Amino acid sequence: MTVGIDLGKGASGASAKVDLEELLATRLLVQGNSGSGKSHLLRRLLEQSAPWVQQCIVDPEGDFVTLADKYGHLVVDAQRTEQELTRIAGRIRQHRVSVVLNLEGLDAEQQMRAAAAFLGGMFDAEREFWYPVLVVVDEAQLFAPAAGGDVSDEARKLSLGAMTNLMCRGRKRGLAGVIATQRLAKLAKNVAAEASNFLMGRTFLDIDMARAADLLGMDKRQAEQFRDLERGRFVGLGPAIARRPVPIAIGPVETSARSVSPKLMPLPDTAPEDAAELIFKIDPEEERRIIRRPPPPPPAPTAEILERLTRQRAEPIAPEPPPSLFPEIDQAEREAALAAVLREIVDDPDAGFRSVAVLYQDFLVRCRIHRVPGVAPDLNNFKRRLAIARAGVDEETAESESWAQAVQMADTLTDDIRGVFLVVAQAALSGSPCPSDATLARAYGTHSPSRARRLLTYFEERGLLVLRTDFHGMRIAVFPELSAETAPGDPNAPDELESRDAAE
């Protein structure tokens, strides 16, 4: 069945149709400067396709929440934890509910982290829930920037990775990306290059006009027309739109955004003396809300600052304080307390799917709650301790030379896969069955068993272990350097921790 979405009028006044099924397979990129009608185009596309396909809108300004009143979209407030957003995204794919992810009120880094968690949850959904979803991302240059900005590198990598998965690998999972940006030059090229359909609106900078013309197969002389486009008019090209560039005038919409363009309004007729009273007179209610702060001290003269610095250099270094009369911290007691805190974190079934940064903050809070003496371990030390704790090794095995050698082998791996290796090594040293794909996936922080299998193949390619299968299809992991191997284990068995929690 072919579904044509009516965007508006074409060059000859005929209806400009977009093939929805083709759009789901080939993705769409929209460019237009602020005020070009870019959001109006997205709203028209969403309204026309709402009866036919599930929709997910990543909305940084809260403009699309009005779709909920007429079309039943569920508004998801992004002021939640990343774990909650990932879970919500998985349930959205399962129950096929159209949603608007409202990022209004968050700063740039929080918006990137929230969008990455939400898109990651949709991307990692189980195969049985890979229904087609139209994923619209407004202001995509915020989530897939071409260069670093004021946000941290971690937030940028998470957001850019989620956008890359959406545009590059999302088609097989039923995710059809529709991204809109004010400037192509600010959008990461590997994200923009995956779109096969384009709608280019008004733009003024030469670099953006040149990139738009290049994507549409136009020469430099034709690129000048993007500067003269009126509001709500675009040039479209792509297998879902047309085989040649065509002008499109976007039609009207049934809903409106909460934020609209400013309109000229006459100034109020206020006499000068009345205006002064309105501005300078403090209302009693306002007076109670004002926080009185003392005025800042006057700046010190330059001569006084120089004299103070000279005096500090001339003063002798203070002697070291005498040793404390109190007993030193018992290191064994401290290590036991840290191990208990790590065990609490590992025993949480959801801990495997949280980022290391979130787990580290949880670790610091728990250390304060349990009053662990001394300075808490830094992030790198925490990562190593967490990987060892996830292995669940007992005291006898932990004190053996074989386990120390296994930890040294794990130190040659990156932080994200070190814990998976130690889980398998612990099973080999204790003679336990080889962990299932679900157990290894939780240790890796994913719901995908295939990723866990690829990790085992990677370990085997590195020469760390050898995998073999017995006659019953059970998997055995052999560690030649440790002279140990696991007992046969079912690779398709459920996660041990989840099964234990369900039984309890």
UniProtKB/TrEMBL annotation:
Protein's recorded name: ATP-binding protein
Disordered: annotated segments: 484-504
Entry keyword set: ATP-binding, Nucleotide-binding
Domain of life: Bacteria
Organism, scientific name: Aquamicrobium zhengzhouense
Database matches in InterPro entries: ATPase_Atu1862_pred, HerA-like, HerA_central, P-loop_NTPase
Molecular functions (GO terms): ATP binding
Limits of the Helicase HerA central domain: 11-78
Pfam families named in the record: DUF87
Lineage of producing organism: Bacteria, Pseudomonadati, Pseudomonadota, Alphaproteobacteria, Hyphomicrobiales
